[in-house]
Amino acid sequence: MTLLPRQKALLAAVIERYVENAEPVGSSALANDARFRAQFGGISTATIRNELAELEAAGLLSHPHTSAGRVPTDAGYRFYVNQLLQPRPLRSSERAQIRSRIPTPPNSIEDALREATSALALLTGYPSMATLPNANRDTMRQIQLNPLPPQRLILIMVTASGRIEHRLFDVEQDVPVARLNTVVNFLNEQFGGRALSELRALSFEDVSTGLHDEATVQLARRAWEQLRASVADLGDERIVVQGVITLLDEPEFSDIAHARAAMRLFQDPVALGDLVHANMSFVEHVAEDSSRAAQSTLRGRVRPTMSAIVIGREQLESQGQSGIENPAVERFSFVGIAYSAGGEVLGTVGVMGPTRMKYADAVSLVPALAARLQASLESI
Fold it and tell me: What is the pLDDT of residue 162?
């Protein structure tokens, strides 16, 4: 779709005013818009109304009431994001917040993600989320084995991402402290730092060659069986969400039915995680099909440092790929980016706000936060 420079400026002015005020934008307001006048001089309201009618006919604006001004459509936001949006420089206060809120090094990946999403929600004013690394990409951090009288042991495993799992199992008699310590040292030496995917593929015989005492071997085998079962039971998709309460500040969700539907979406971590994954897959697929890889914000992240953007009803298309059905997502836009550490993509971090989102803020803040998150994770 091709627009004349004045039509582009009018579309941008309508979107930016609507984002700011959540009110339909009329021709009089546009005629008095300082930036528009500086660029094109004084233009009559009649001329502006004609231009707005053409933008409406093109599907970029809608006219909610005969007497009201125009509001952007999803297609209008898409055109704006693809062709008109300019990410703004970060403010020094925003850089300082990002640095101070995300620790280096963090206690765990999950702790880093909680701080990152909390900072992002505070800075953007929208719900923020991050998916934890897939369990197959996670690594073992620490294994503990503690006695629980009478004649029981508890195995506790902690992964690099912050997952904590425990298993109880019975033993025939009290275990001497020295033997318990030997087995704990054995487990940590053999499996500490290993990828969970690698651990899943091992057998006890693969790693037990250094054990000789029969009682110690048997205890180590029991502990290994519990450890492997814990790893096998780990879910592959987890998500951290912060700032959902910010939705209640948005006029789109002043209607109680809309607010409830939105809250239900964010209260289902499995569905939300699937939606984030589907959005990222969807935008990459669209970017590939479009053959416009040079365009940094074409419905997606076509370079690792660029944000994926999915707007309104586009999320219904991505839902079709994930099998999720929640019509509430059409009131939202998603801006996200893959975060990584050590050259490996670990997950996604982003925001989900109303389609009337401050896109310039989101596309500046999300990549900056992901860069700080990468630095934090690489310091572990």
Answer: 77
